[in-house]
Amino acid sequence: xxxxxxxxxxxxxxxxxxxxxxxxxxxxxxxxxxxxxxxxxxxxxxxxxxxxxxxxxxxxxxxxxxxxxxxxxxxxxxxxxxxxxxxxxxxxxxxxxxxxxxxxxxxxxxxxxxxxxxxxxxxxxxxxxxxxxxxxxxxxxxxxxxxxxxxxxxxxxxxxxxxxxxxxxxxxxxxxxxxxxxxxxxxxxxxxxxxxxxxxxxxxxxxxxxxxxxxxxxxxxxxxxxxxxxxxxxxxxxxxxxxxxxxxxxxxxxxxxxxxxxxxxxxxxxxxxxxxxxxxxxxxxxxxxxxxxxxxxxxxxxxxxxxxxxxxxxxxxxxxxxxxxxx
Amino acid sequence: xxxxxxxxxxxxxxxxxxxxxxxxxxxxxxxxxxxxxxxxxxxxxxxxxxxxxxxxxxxxxxxxxxxxxxxxxxxxxxxxxxxxxxxxxxxxxxxxxxxxxxxxxxxxxxxxxxxxxxxxxxxxxxxxxxxxxxxxxxxxxxxxxxxxxxxxxxxxxxxxxxxxxxxxxxxxxxxxxxxxxxxxxxxxxxxxxxxxxxxxxxxxxxxxxxxxxxxxxxxxxxxxxxxxxxxxxxxxxxxxxxxxxxxxxxxxxxxxxxxxxxxxxxxxxxxxxxxxxxxxxxxxxxxxxxxxxxxxxxxxxxxxxxxxxxxxxxxxxxxxxxxxxxxxxxxxxxxxxxxxxxxxxxxxxxxxxxxxxxxxxxxxxxxxxxxxxxxxxxxxxxxxxxxxxx
Lengths: 327, 390
What we know:
Order of helices and strands of chain B: EEEEEEEHHHHHEHHEEEEEEHEHEEEEH
Number of domains of chain A: 2
Strand order of the largest sheet of chain A: 3-2-4-5-7-6-12
Largest interface: A-B, 17 and 22 residues
Largest sheet of chain B: 7 strands, mixed
Mean pLDDT of chain A: 96
CATH superfamily of the largest domain in chain A: Thiamin diphosphate (ThDP)-binding fold, Pyr/PP domains
Shape of chain A: globular
Strand content of chain A: 15-25%
Helix content of chain B: 25-40%
Shape of chain B: elongated
Strand content of chain B: 15-25%
Largest sheet of chain A: 7 strands, mixed
Radius of gyration of chain B: 25 Å
Distance between the termini of chain B: 38 Å
Radius of gyration of chain A: 19 Å
Number of strands of chain A: 14
Number of strands of chain B: 19
Order of helices and strands of chain A: EHEHEHEHHHEHHEHEEEEHEEHEHEHH
Low-confidence stretches of chain A: none
CATH topology of the largest domain in chain A: Rossmann fold
CATH class of the largest domain in chain A: Alpha Beta
CATH architecture of the largest domain in chain A: 3-Layer(aba) Sandwich
Oligomer: heterodimer
CATH superfamily of the largest domain in chain B: Chloramphenicol acetyltransferase-like domain
Distance between the termini of chain A: 48 Å
Helix content of chain A: 25-40%
Low-confidence stretches of chain B: 88-120
Number of domains of chain B: 3
Structural class of chain A: alpha/beta
Number of helices of chain A: 14
C-alpha cells in the first residue's frame, strides 16, 4: 500500500491507462498501433491482451477518421482515450479537434459536451527529423474549448489521464518523447493529481524559470547549476498549458522579480510569448529585468544530432539566460 | 492591512506570530506592524485556520491590502493556500473613501512626476526598481545603475537607500499628527462648549475609597472621569462614532480614546473598550496597562483603530481648560482640565470646593450645541453621584 516503486515515465503512462480502463467501463483506447504493436512508443504494450480488442482498438492510418470517431463516441456517452502518434500528425485531425471537439459545447448552447481525451507525443531530441519532432502544443493552447496538459513528472504521467477523463470537455495530453525512459521513485499507491495548477518544482528567490513537459528536467538541472553559482532559481512546471495558472506565475515573479521562460516550441506567436505577455500585463511592476526566453530555434527541427541539440533548449542556454538577468 | 489611525496610508510589516495551518481566534495577536506611531500588535478579526501568509518582513503594505488568508467555517486551508492568487502589486489603487482620495491624489502625482525625469534624459529603471524608489523616497537620478541592459535595479535602489540616513521616527509621528489635525481643522466644523463641574463630592468619595484599598488597587480620578464620560455618552450617542462618506455611523460601543503624550514627544490616543461596562477597578487596571504599553510602544491594532471618541485630560499639566481638535473620523473630543479649589456658591453660601472645567469639541455636521450641552450636563450629574461610577 504505502512505500515507493521504481518506475519509468512510459510505465507510469501505462499504469495510468490501466487504472482508467479498470475504473471506468466507458473508457477505451484507440489509435494507430495501440493494440497488437503495443503502441508506437510501447506505452500500451500488454493492454490488448488484458482488456481485449473491444477496449484497445487499432485504427486505420487516418487521424481525421479515428479522432472524429473518438469525438463521436464521447458525444454518445463513452470516455474515449484517443492516441495520436505524435503532435505532428495530429494536424491531420486538427479539423476534428478544433471545429468539433472544441466548439460543440458552445455551438450547441451547452446541450452537447465532448469528454474525449487525446494523447499525443511531442518534442524533439531523438533524431526523428522535422516531421516527427515539433512541439506544437502551444498551437493547441491557443484554442478555447480545449484543456491542454503536459505531464513532466512520473506522478503526472500516471495521474493526469484519469483526472482528464473526469473533465466533461476535451483534454489533450502531451507526452514528451524524451521523457519516456526517465526513471524515478514514486508512491506505489497512486494519488489523484489535479490538472488545474502549475507546480513550483524548486523554490528560489532570484529568478523564476518557467517551463513544462520535456524541458522541466533540463531546467531543474540548470537551477542546480545556478545554485552552485550562488543564484537561487525557482522552477515552475506549468503542467496545464490551457488554461494557464497565472496566479502561480505572477506570485513567483513577484518574489524573484525576474523570469526566464523555457519552451521547446518556437518563440514567434508561441506559448512563451503568451506567458511573457501575461507577466507584463499582471506583474509589470514586479519586474526588475526584462523577461527572457529560451526556446526552440526558428527552424524545422534538424535531423543531424549536433544541429538538433542546437535547435532546442539546453541546460547551458538556460543557465546563461538566467545569469544574464541576475547581475 | 488594518487602518491603525485615520491618517495611516501604509504600514511596514515586521513579523508573524503565527504560521500557516495554525488555528486562530478572533482578537488573537497574529503579527506586528510598524507604523508612524510605533510597532503595533495586530489582532485578527476572524477566527479560523490561517491558510497563507502573504505579507513578509520589511514589506511596506498599503492599508486594505491582503496580508494573510484565513480559512473559515471548515474550509480546507490547504486548498485555499494553493488557490490563493498573489497579492496585487501594491502600486494598484486601494479602496478609499472619496474624501481620502481627494486629499492623497495630489501628493501621489507629485511623487510620480518627481521620479520620472523628462523623456530627453529618461533613466533606464526596472519597473520594480521604480516602485521601490518611490516607496523608499529615493531620487532615481542619483542612483547608479548596475542591472540588466544598464538599468537601475531594485538592488541599486536599496543600496542608495541604505546610504541615506534612517528615517526620523519623531519627525514621522509629528508629520502623522500634522496630517490628521490639518484634515480635522480643514474638514470638521467644530463647535466648542465648556462648563465648570464641582467635583468635591466625587474626589472625597474617591479619596475615601482609595484609603480603604491597598495601594495597587487605588484609582486615579482620571479613571472616574472616563467612566462618567462613557456613561454620559449613553444620553448623547451622536457624539460617539464616526463621520464617514458624508454620514454619521454610531460607534459600536463606548471605546474611549485616551490621549497619551509620549516621553519622546508626540501623542497617541489608543482605545479603552466598552468603558461604560467596566467597573472602576477594571477600568483602572486597563488604563494602567494601556498607559504602560503606549509608552513602551506595544499597542494593539484594535486599540489604535477603533476609538469612538477621544478624551484628553491635561489635568497634571496645570491648565484649567482644554479645547481639543477632533481626531477624524471621530465626531467629538472631551477635554478635562486640572481640578482646582475655587470659591463656590452652594445653597447661598460661599464654600471652597474643587472644580474641573469640562469641555467638548464636537462635529457640527453630526450634532448641535444643544446635544453637546446635554452631554456636559449629564457628565456633571453623574459626577455628583460618584457611587454610581464604582
